[in-house]
Design goal:
There is one protein chain. By secondary structure, this protein is α/β, with parallel strands linked by helices. The chain has a single domain (about 5-245), classed as Spore Coat Polysaccharide Biosynthesis Protein SpsA, Chain A, CATH 3.90.550. About 50% of the residues lie in helices and about 15% in strands. It contains 8 helices and 7 strands. The chain has a 7-stranded mixed sheet with strand order 3-2-1-4-6-5-7, sandwiched between helices. Strand 2, helix 2 (about 40-50) and strand 3 (about 55-60) form a beta-alpha-beta unit.
Length: about 250
């Protein structure tokens, strides 16, 4: 196994340094995807790449493509660089860096599975975001005919790269905040097993969120509709798998 971290970055220059430091403290090489950030944030990423050129690289997108577009570029770059697995973590510091060793350990123990963070929130979570997640959870359970994916919106996870990039090359997947949800559902459709790993999530009071309440909710709603029709076509196979596949 060759494991790296992929971090999509869009104007998180004040927070991303601590995330990179935590990953390097765990000896993880980093692929930093600059998703059209302003000059100050881009300079922070360049500083880290110049500081550790053998362990950190920057993939620069000329214009903002959204979290999904940045992750697609980073996952493809990681595979091309010879890595077998990639840990996805947000640049804003909301994920608990202290859990990185647990994600790495689970990935090494079960390398064919996707290790997916299952958030344990503190009081900092915005209540609107928290309640909105439950609707998405229900739709994911419907669209997979399974409860295997406990939380599809947490961007703290480890992907097996070869099957994930193969999916990216063969299916049209949302390029913004719908990416995290859709890629999990589609990987599940392709029989990838999911390991749900509890992890604490904290929303910094001065954090920068790029979630567009109206636009991204519309994107996510359209995605759920597309996935529902995809599920209907796959329903016999999904039901057969649920009845006869061994428990995870």
């Amino acid at each position: 196994m060759r494991l790296c971290a992929v971090i999509p970055v869009y104007n998180h220059g004040d927070a991303v340094g601590e995330v990179i430091a935590a990953l390097r403290g765990n000896a993880l090489p980093c692929v930093l995807v600059d998703d059209g950030s302003e000059a100050g944030c881009a300079a922070v990423l360049d500083h880290w790449a110049e500081r550790e050129p053998d362990a950190i690289c920057v993939v620069r997108l000329p214009r903002n493509q959204g979290k999904g577009g940045a992750m697609m570029a980073g996952l493809r770059a990681a595979l091309q660089a010879g890595y077998s697995h990639a840990l996805q973590i947000d640049a804003d510091g909301q994920h608990n860096a202290g859990d990185i060793p647990a994600f790495v350990a689970q990935a090494r123990l079960q390398p064919e599975r996707l290790i997916c963070g299952c958030p344990v929130y503190d009081d900092s979570v915005p209540k609107g975001r928290l309640y909105g997640r439950y609707l998405t959870h229900v739709w994911v359970w419907i669209n997979t005919l399974s409860l295997e994916i406990r939380d599809s919106m947490c961007g703290f996870r480890v992907y097996p790269l070869a099957p994930t990039v193969a999916l990216l090359d063969s299916a049209r997947i949302g390029r913004r905040m719908d990416f995290d949800i859709e890629i999990l559902v589609r990987l599940h459709w392709r029989s990838m097993r999911i390991v749900n790993l509890p992890t604490r999530v904290h929303y910094p009071a001065d954090g920068v969120s790029h979630f567009r309440v109206c636009a991204d909710n519309v994107l996510i709603s359209r995605m759920h509709a597309r996935l529902f029709f995809g599920m209907a076509l796959r329903a016999p196979l999904l039901l057969w798998r649920r009845l006869f596949r061994r428990p995870a």
